[in-house]
Automatic annotation (TrEMBL):
Residue ranges of every copy of the HTH tetR-type domain listed in the record: 5-65
Name of the protein described by the UniProt record: TetR/AcrR family transcriptional regulator
InterPro entries recorded: BscR_C, Homeodomain-like_sf, HTH-type_TetR-like_transc_reg, HTH_TetR, Tet_transcr_reg_TetR-rel_C_sf
Xref: PANTHER family: HTH-TYPE TRANSCRIPTIONAL REGULATOR BETI, HTH-TYPE TRANSCRIPTIONAL REGULATOR RUTR
Key words, A-Z: DNA-binding, Transcription, Transcription regulation
Domain of life: Bacteria
DNA-binding region, residue intervals: 28-47
Length: 197
């Protein structure tokens, strides 16, 4: 027998696609239903409000990013330098932006403070903490420049997000490995403590 479609997942995927195109604020529930190929009433069986759908989409996207980062960090065994760890973070971000483009755009190009529930905010803080912890370790080792860790994270992620935005519609996947390496080195230069600093 054919598998029954996962309506909740179809709705999440459709919502993320529309949020990426139109923003959360600019997306209406009937458009999500139409994109998912279901009746409008079906949405409310799974998500009782637009805010509930937005939070589910945000949590799904943030968990996907966190999973991709964690996978990249353990890939290839232990890291030996802060620069190598940065390369693993870069790998995680590029894989996520390439495989989940709509989710990445939704997370990084929009404001979410109008609808995020406490559990969504806690997940956002968890992801931010992973990045800030990396910066703090790099500062302690002398490999990353002085400065507020959250500010340095914002600069690095902002540079990566700008790159993804610049590359649309083809996204990060249209960059060659050599071009990705050039971009990685440039973003690392934002963070790296120079020898004379």
């Amino acid at each position: 027998m054919p598998r029954k479609p996962d309506i909740a997942q179809q709705l999440l995927d459709s919502a993320l696609s529309l949020f990426a195109e139109r923003t959360y604020e600019g997306t209406q529930m009937p458009a999500v239903a139409q994109r998912a190929g279901v009746g409008v009433g079906s949405i409310y069986r799974y998500f009782p409000s637009k805010e509930a759908l937005g939070n589910a989409a945000f949590q799904y996207a943030k968990r996907g990013l966190l999973d991709q980062l964690n996978d990249a960090l353990v890939e290839g065994g232990p890291v030996h330098t802060v620069r190598e760890e940065f390369g693993r973070f870069w790998l995680g971000f590029t894989r996520y932006a390439g495989s989940a483009h709509d989710a990445f755009v939704f997370l990084e190009h929009q404001q979410h403070d109008t609808f995020l529930a406490p559990e969504s905010q806690a997940l956002a803080v968890e992801v931010d903490r992973v990045a800030s912890d990396f910066i703090e370790r790099g500062q302690r080792s002398g490999e990353i420049r002085d400065g507020d860790p959250q500010q340095l994270v914002a600069l690095a992620i902002g540079a990566f997000t700008g790159l993804v935005k610049h590359l649309r519609p083809g996204g990060i996947g249209k960059l060659s490995p050599a071009s990705l390496k050039v971009a990685e080195d440039a973003v690392w230069d934002l963070l790296h403590r120079k020898a004379d600093s």
